[in-house]
Specification:
27% of the residues lie in helices and 30% in strands. Helix 1 packs across helix 3 and helix 2 packs across helix 3. It has two domains: 4-65, Winged helix-like DNA-binding domain superfamily/Winged helix DNA-binding domain (Arc Repressor Mutant, subunit A, Orthogonal Bundle); 92-225, Chorismate lyase. The protein is α+β, with helices and mostly antiparallel strands. The chain contains eight helices and eight strands, in the order αααββααβαββαβαββ. A hairpin with a 3-residue loop joins strand 1 and strand 2 (62-65). Strands 3-4-5-8-7-6 form a six-stranded antiparallel beta sheet.
Length: 233
């Protein structure tokens, strides 16, 4: 019997054939709903499309059709964001913890507010395989509960950027993103979380989510072992 992800892959091939380079596919959540499969099944199909050079994933924006004559690493879309598509498509996240509490002084400063909003703290690990055996990254998300009500009730194993940028929030808001990519060294806690004996080079992807007034309403920081995840310039 043909696996579900292969059927989704074939269906997406037909869809992509009718699209132009640069057009965006639906989110993993919408694709999973339309094909009546799990988001993980869709993710595996998207991985194959990415490996075949037919699509490129851009953190915070989605999956886009590429020019068949180019590869994901040389695609203008990938170059524009300076981030290899494997960051979103070739890692498997696993939820470590999620809780809601009042923002502390550091978080209020980050969110540029004098209020004391409730913040959803989301911690996840990233793996190279869906069985979660090869740990390659850690991620921490700080999300304002009043801007994204009910965030902890959603499936937090999905792409967090897509969840925050989705159209299912009430009231609806215009959310934009700002991203920073940098090289860093792991601190003692990060080394412990990544199960490495000593500090190691990491690639950090910091994504800020801004509301209509330009204020930060969420911040996601992902750090990956540099030997597995690459930045393309």
């Amino acid at each position: 019997m043909e696996p579900k992800y292969a059927k989704v892959y074939d269906a997406l091939l037909e869809r992509i054939a009718k699209m132009n380079p640069g057009e965006r596919l639906d989110s993993e959540v919408k694709l999973a709903s339309s094909f009546n499969v799990s988001p993980m099944t869709v993710r595996r199909a998207l991985m194959l499309l990415n490996q075949d050079g037919l699509t490129v994933g851009i953190p915070g924006r989605g999956t886009f059709v590429t020019d068949p004559k180019s590869t994901p690493n040389t695609s203008p879309l990938a170059a524009e964001n300076s981030w290899n598509a494997s960051t979103t498509l070739l890692t498997y996240p696993r939820l470590v913890s999620a809780l809601l509490q009042k923002a502390d002084d550091t978080e209020r400063k980050l969110l540029n507010t004098t209020e004391e909003p409730f913040i959803a703290h989301i911690q996840r690990s990233h793996y190279l395989d869906e069985n979660h055996t090869k740990l390659v990254g850690i991620e921490v998300g700080i999300v304002r509960g009043d801007v994204f009500p009910g965030i902890l009730g959603l499936d937090l194993s999905q792409n967090l950027s897509e969840l925050l940028l989705g159209d299912h929030w009430e009231p609806k808001r215009e959310i934009t993103t700002s991203q920073t990519i940098r090289a860093t060294m792991s601190n003692e806690l990060e080394a412990e979380q990544l199960h490495i004996a000593e500090p190691a080079p990491l690639l950090a992807l910091e994504t800020s989510f801004l509301d209509e007034a330009g204020k930060t309403c969420a911040e996601i920081t992902s750090k990956f072992l540099g030997e597995h995840i690459e930045i393309t310039l």
